[in-house]
Design a protein that fits this description.
Number of strands of chain A: 13
Radius of gyration of chain B: 22 Å
Radius of gyration of chain A: 21 Å
CATH class of the largest domain in chain B: Alpha Beta
Strand content of chain A: 25-35%
Strand content of chain B: 25-35%
Keywords (chain B): Electron transport, FAD, Flavoprotein, Mitochondrion, Transit peptide, Transport
Largest sheet of chain B: 7 strands, parallel
GO molecular function (chain B): electron transfer activity; flavin adenine dinucleotide binding
Structural class of chain A: alpha/beta
CATH class of chain A: Alpha Beta
Largest sheet of chain A: 9 strands, mixed
Number of strands of chain B: 18
Largest interface: A-B, 89 and 103 residues
InterPro entries (chain B): DHS-like_NAD/FAD-binding_dom (IPR029035), ETF_a/b_N (IPR014730), ETF_a/FixB (IPR001308), ETF_alpha_N (IPR033947), ETF_asu_C (IPR014731), ETF_asu_C_CS (IPR018206), Rossmann-like_a/b/a_fold (IPR014729)
Pfam families (chain B): ETF (PF01012), ETF_alpha (PF00766)
Main location (chain B): mitochondrion
CATH superfamily of the largest domain in chain B: HUPs
Distance between the termini of chain A: 70 Å
Strand order of the largest sheet of chain A: 9-8-7-10-6-1-4-5-11
Shape of chain A: globular
Structural class of chain B: alpha/beta
Strand order of the largest sheet of chain B: 7-11-6-1-4-5-12
Number of domains of chain A: 1
Helix content of chain A: 25-40%
CATH superfamily of chain A: HUPs
CATH topology of chain A: Rossmann fold
Oligomer: heterodimer
Number of domains of chain B: 2
Distance between the termini of chain B: 46 Å
């Protein structure tokens, strides 16, 4: 018999609404950002994080009690919470923030959520994408782990949780590092970030999308979390510009011409 | 995210520095540079980070962490790197795997006790893992993957897979920056004459342990720093295709082998070979893209190469828009011919 249900793991999955990865972005005419009046979707690495949380529960039913998706952003970011709920998250938290926020601020918001939930239903694992494909920062998970003083396992391509979701349960993570893979052993509570090859996210089925509409989304303001000062940007964007465009060169007719051109250019 | 829209609070440049030690508006930069090393060798990205740090002005102190058997030799090597004025070496067995939990607190305490204005490291897997954890403990909004230093608080970095460049000014007291290795020349590993100072590691947290490393074995040059790269895409159809077509060409050119995400996901090539936004960023003299269509995520990883050659049978493939030399041909015929004639 299980000791106590309370020991089961609650997983928090932060997700971000970002410009869809397939959109060819354009620099805005004011030179201060990019044109955001385009298709948005859930950051692809976050989809992998949601999928992994759901799969962890499928693999180890006894260990995972609840999966909570969370996002920080404007009202529209509720879309990505609904997607996460349709993929299998149980409930969601929306922290309403009007403008863009930096990873440092997001990590503080996430810590506040972890702290706030600790009194009712403690969070033992936070699963994030390794980076958002808009700012490409790759910081939030590591920053959150630093704030919580939890261990971190970044760029995971395989995750194995042993045990029943108790504190201190061993987690073995295969990480994608430069030059290959590194297997590390760590324990919950833990912050994990996902790499591309961790899994193949599922599509939400229509019935699940309908069910997701009934799932609970709790809304907090930044003031509710006492973080008004903490979300102020520390970085000022002075300019956003197009990268220098490459001039596509001429096509060559055959291999011989390619070789002679390469020789001419001094590349071989 | 921060780069998407202009900040509304324009003008409030003055942030509270962690420690104001100068009344002058010109603060002398004082940089702590994290040195990444493996098997006794300094990672080239750390040497590029030295070059970036030199553009900040002021002194550069290199931090070498590792087990006592390795760190001393690396510290010795770091002391000869041009531009480094002091090497701080801290030894503990907990440092040997270059994991974040033990190293980030050391960086934090050094910055606080020695009043560094900047923390700089390479934007590698190790740098990306450790540095944000240190940044948050310094309450600093990190600037990742910079490609240009415009001043001691102003940096240029790519966003949206390199489809836009953001110039950002940090208002933090301590600026924490990771550097794109291919955007800065490596500092010379000779001619420097830095002093070496030992730093007591103190109590070192180690909640995570490295149990195994599975490195892809290769006698070819390292992908991230190779001067020539031959990459294959999904059109290779199998790992045998890579072995039969890509590898001989790479060997002939003394090039590293790369791959598109599609080829990696299909299992044709190892993860470590992926070139692109989520893989390696390369900028070799010569990049040969074989059977790669040229998705924006792939271009983000190689479009700063000096010369790009594309071999693809689809004349409409986007790769041709960036290629200096394009050959519209069946790779199964063209690549063996090229390999043979080189």
């Amino acid at each position: 018999m299980r000791a106590s249900l309370v020991n089961q793991l609650r997983v928090l999955v932060p997700v971000k609404r970002s410009i869809d990865y397939a959109v060819k972005i354009r620099v805005a005419s004011d030179g201060k950002g990019v044109d955001t009046n385009v298709q948005h979707s859930m950051n692809p690495f976050d989809e992998i994080a949601v999928e992994e949380a759901v799969r962890m529960r499928e693999r180890n039913k006894d260990a995972i009690k609840r999966i909570t998706a969370v996002t920080a952003g404007p009202a529209k970011s509720q879309d990505v919470l609904r997607t996460a709920l349709a993929m299998g998250a149980d409930d969601a938290i929306h922290v309403e923030v009007p403008g863009p926020i930096e990873p440092l601020a997001v990590s503080k918001i996430l810590r506040a959520i972890v702290d706030k939930e600790a009194s009712s239903d403690e969070i033992g694992l936070v699963l994030l994408g390794k980076q958002a494909i808009d700012d490409d920062a790759s910081q939030t998970g590591q920053m959150l782990a630093g704030l919580l003083k939890w261990p971190q396992a970044t760029f995971a391509s395989k995750v194995e949780l042993e045990g029943k979701g108790d504190k201190g349960d061993k987690v073995t993570v295969t990480r994608e590092v430069d030059g290959g893979l590194a297997v590390v052993e760590t324990h919950v509570p833990l912050v994990l970030t996902t790499d591309l090859r961790l899994n193949e996210p599922r599509y939400a089925s229509l019935p699940n999308i309908m069910k997701a509409k009934k799932k609970k989304v709790v809304k907090y303001s930044v003031a509710d979390l006492g973080l008004e000062k903490d979300i102020e940007p520390r970085l000022e964007t002075l300019k956003v510009s197009e990268p220098p465009q490459r001039q596509g060169g001429a096509k060559v007719e055959n291999v011989d011409e390619l070789i002679s051109k390469l020789k001419e250019a001094g590349r071989i | 995210m921060f780069a998407v829209r202009s900040m509304l609070r324009a003008g409030s440049r003055a942030a509270t520095p962690l420690r104001a030690f100068s009344t002058s508006s010109m603060r002398q930069a004082n940089t702590l540079l994290f040195v990444e090393h493996k098997n006794g060798a300094i990672n080239p990205a750390s040497l590029s980070a030295v070059t970036a740090a030199q553009k900040l002005g002021g002194e550069i102190h290199a931090l070498v962490t590792g087990s006592s058997s390795h760190a001393k030799a690396v510290a010795e090597a770091a002391s000869k790197v041009q531009g480094v004025s002091k090497v701080l070496v801290s030894t503990s067995d907990a440092f040997s795997a270059l994991l974040a939990e033990p190293i980030a607190p050391l960086i934090e305490s050094l910055v606080k006790s020695k009043s560094y204005t900047h923390v700089v490291a390479g934007h590698t897997a190790v740098g990306r893992d450790i540095i944000p954890r240190a940044a948050v403990c310094l309450d600093s909004s990190q600037v990742s993957d910079i490609i240009e230093v415009q001043g001691e608080d102003t940096f240029v970095r790519p966003i949206y897979a390199g489809n836009a460049l953001a110039t950002v000014m940090s208002k933090d007291g301590v600026k924490v920056v990771t550097v794109r290795g291919t955007a800065f020349d490596a500092a010379s590993t000779e001619g420097g004459n830095a002093s070496v100072e030992e730093v007591d590691a103190g109590e070192v947290p180690q909640p995570t342990k490295l149990v195994q490393e599975k490195m892809s074995e290769s006698t070819r040059p390292d992908l991230a720093t190779a001067s020539r790269v031959v990459s294959g895409g999904r059109a290779l159809k199998s790992s045998e295709g890579f072995a039969k077509y890509i590898e001989p060409l790479a060997d002939k050119l003394k090039a590293a082998v790369g791959a598109s995400r599609a080829a990696v996901d299909a299992g044709y090539a190892d993860n470590a070979l992926q070139v692109g936004q989520t893989g390696k960023i390369v900028a070799p003299e010569l990049y040969v893209a074989v059977g790669i269509s040229g998705a924006i995520q792939h271009l983000a990883g190689m479009k700063d190469s000096k010369t790009i050659v594309a071999i693809n049978k689809d004349p409409e493939a986007p790769i041709f828009q960036v290629a200096d030399m394009g050959l519209v041909a069946d790779l199964y015929e063209a690549v063996p011919e090229l390999t043979e004639k080189l």
